[in-house]
Design a protein that fits this description.
The chain has 14 helices and no strands. By secondary structure, it is mostly helical.
């Protein structure tokens, strides 16, 4: 039997447990035979691939490629995936640039099949980088089968750190959060914004995100999330607000909050 993530608690307490055991659990999970075979196949074969057509023709390669970017739901949409990759991101009218979900642009940009100098698949180390990302994303998906909120927290911790350190203006980085559904859900929940908030004017949304972020976590800049403590403060708020939202309607808000804080301090240690 393959290793399954150990999640003895949910919410803040579950998050603290995952933080302490993440490296151990991920390493054990990556040794699962099926996962390891797909990752090894990708590392061995991706250097031979120089077109999007060749990539989508190999289902095992495509499984890893899509899974590394959280797009595994598109495994059977080969024509769509090929179009995303062949268009790339250099042209403003490229398909990935016209989609609201910015994960497609990240996917196309990473493989760079539209690059004049050749695709990234020919670059040394590319296979290892994507395979490692696939293993991490697969672990997060397994966590999500037990607790979707913890999956979102893991994803946000990784993606926000990368986004914060990336070049670009703060406005561009807020756009990236707004256009990446898993990140948007975490940030909206952490800042106490309703789902209907997305119907507002884009400029108004950015202003609200920045103002709420400044008030609740002490910064309006996405770049500040490169700091682990600042990022953790945001994730804590997400998990806290998420648990309150999912608490029974009959429970008193004060008692729910007290219970969550007590559970967060329990800190189990199974590893």
């Amino acid at each position: 039997m393959s290793f399954q993530p150990a999640l003895p608690l949910s919410g803040l307490a579950g998050w603290r447990f995952l933080e302490r055991t993440l490296d151990t659990q991920q390493a054990a999970f990556a040794e699962a035979p099926a996962l390891a075979r797909d990752a090894d196949h990708f590392r061995a074969r991706i250097g031979e691939i120089d077109t999007a057509e060749a990539l989508v023709a190999d289902r095992r390669l495509l499984t890893v490629a899509l899974g590394a970017f959280g797009l595994q739901q598109d495994i059977d949409n080969r024509f769509f995936v090929r179009k995303i990759l062949e268009d790339g991101t250099a042209r403003p009218d490229a398909l990935a640039n016209r989609l609201a979900d910015k994960r497609y642009a990240d996917f196309a940009r990473a493989f760079a099949f539209d690059a004049p100098q050749g695709p990234a698949t020919q670059r040394p180390g590319f296979g290892q980088e994507v395979a490692a990302r696939f293993e991490r994303q697969s672990f997060e998906a397994a966590v999500g089968e037990q607790d979707e909120s913890l999956r979102l927290a893991l994803n946000a911790d990784r993606e926000l750190a990368a986004l914060a350190a990336a070049p670009g203006t703060e406005r561009t980085k807020w756009f990236r959060i707004m256009g990446t559904p898993p990140l948007r859900r975490v940030v909206e929940t952490a800042l106490g914004l309703p789902e209907s908030f997305g119907a507002q004017d884009i400029d108004k949304q950015i202003e609200t995100f920045q103002a709420r972020s400044d008030r609740m976590i002490g910064t309006r800049d996405v770049s500040a999330l490169a700091d682990a403590e600042t990022r953790d403060a945001l994730i804590q708020r997400f998990l806290f607000q998420d648990q309150i939202a999912r608490a029974p309607a009959t429970a008193a808000p004060g008692s729910v909050a007290l219970t969550l804080l007590q559970n967060a301090a329990r800190g189990p240690s199974l590893f």
